[in-house]
Amino acid sequence: MADFDNNRFAPLLTSKMSPESYGKLVELGNEPLFAFVGEYTELCEPDSVYMCDDSDGDAEYIRQNSLRRGEENPLAKEGQTIHYDGSEDQGRAPGATKNLVAKELVPLMGALLAKERQEGLAEVREILKGIMKGKQAVVKLSCEGPTQSPFSIACAQMTDSFYVAHSEDLLYRRGYEHFRLMAPGERFFRFVHSAGRLDENGNSKDLDQRRIYQDLDDYIVMSANNQYAGNSVGLKKHAMRLAIKLSGTEGWLCEHMFAMAVQNEKKGRSTCFCGAFPSACGKTATAMLPGEKIIGDDIAYFRKINGEFRAVNVENGIFGIIKDVNGADDPLIFKTLQTPGREIIFSNVLTGPDNEPYWQGMGVDHPSSGRSFCGEWFAGKTDEQAKPIPLAHSNARYTLRLGYLENIDPAYNDKNGVLVEGIIYGGRDSDTSVPIEESTDWKSGILLKACTLESETTSAVIGEEGVLAPQPMANLDFISYPIGAYITNNIRFVEGMEKVPRIYAVNYFLRDNKGHFLTHKLAKKVWLHWAEQRIHNEVDAYRTPLGFIPRYEDLKSLFGEIFGEDFSEELYRELFKFRIDPWVAKISRAVRFYTRNAPDCPKEYFEIWKSTVHKLTALKERYGRFIAPGDYEESVG
Ligand code: OXD
Ligand code: MN
Fold it and tell me: How far is CA 371 from the centre of its chain?
């Protein structure tokens, strides 16, 4: 056991910590952890420091403090609380977020928000100086992935926000005991967060001093003057950036993906799919499809274990977008949100005179006034541009433990993860991609489906909404080493694997020329069951220039079996025609994007994209603007 009596930080920490808290820190015998707490106590100058272990008592201490300080307030239903972020702190803040890297690397980072490390460290440390004065800091240990597993990454968070610590308790596995069992010198991620000075509503005041700087050499993230969980909760997006960097150096993958298992009851089979969708493009709705099982909704680690492609959900809870969660579209989440006695944090929704939460797309009548993300809200309230202010923010959220969900897959805690058999890339376009298409092989799936993924920007990120932007692997905001190397790591990950997952591209948003969606919201269940049958080699498919699509008769029987619906051939032909012009435009946009933003991208990838554009352009002469299903080539197995 390390002896900390002569440690340079011992006098400071004994003066700021109760004997019990100090005892919990010392008991772990972890010198880098002790130094971390010491260094940031010295820099941030909290009045006191509270050290948590994995006990329910400490979890309750955090929750009670968040309530006592007004970071959260109780709602009408037992266990439920409400938290408000400031009106300018309602989404991730790319402008304030930087990857700190060595000077030589900055030009290679392209679109990846990089800053020279020493300069960034000096800047953020200056902002953190004395930032916790007058507050208590809490140190909470957690684990990314199941504890004591080949996937585990231990994490230490120090924050002066009890809402942040509370969110971490709901979203991640507790990690104090995991730290106790760690080998000396084992790496852990570190996060320092301060909400900074607060205004009269308890919101971060110095937004011009908002910073989220990840030191990728030292695996530490410093976040200041913010509260929105995507900016403040270290284990969520900050840890993701650190894990992506680490996975790039070690040859595994950290992806912005859900994990779910399609249930084939007739065959007694459960088949795991992981999927990347840009925010607000149907990701949680796919992970939560009725009748299937959820493993995770946002972040997955992939490792090769005994030659198999295996995944874990990094998290233990959901920080989900609440807009449009209603009894018809998301019945399981909706029911969980309505059940008293569940510890759930709502954020940035309307609370009415009945002290119940209300949000956009909830599907129930809502009160005409109350408190919301904009302060006092009333029906008809407008902003400075005279635009109506919605009752809740479009990026308002709920935070809950996964264990509350009825459809949780029992395998979600397995230490060796689950075997992944399908990967899904989900975009959002009204006129380009078919509802589902299988890639011919892994590499072309990565280059033509994952790398060409794009979406309109949404409210999960501060900035203009509705702009079409490239989204490689739906991960652009989190990739933390040069994009070309990241693509190569994705391609090479499956080398030597006996069974490589199939890659699917899906698009739930095709519309007719009047702007109406061509399919209903649950049609995605049919697309996934088709993919499940393909993986088990039970259905044939038609070739397209970019992969394989379903045959009409297979979809007809799935629509019949699953929904008792008669799926028409006319609709099938409209949905699954290959649209040449938009695909040429889409791949050309990707070429422009990678030319500008991925200076390290190998020439070979450009050659593949460009030759695909040529191939498609030539096909247009032969087939016209569209290739009807089955026309491109003979049906293949
Ligand atoms: C999220 C996001 O909150 O990606 O998961 O913004
Ligand atoms: Mn996400």
Answer: 28
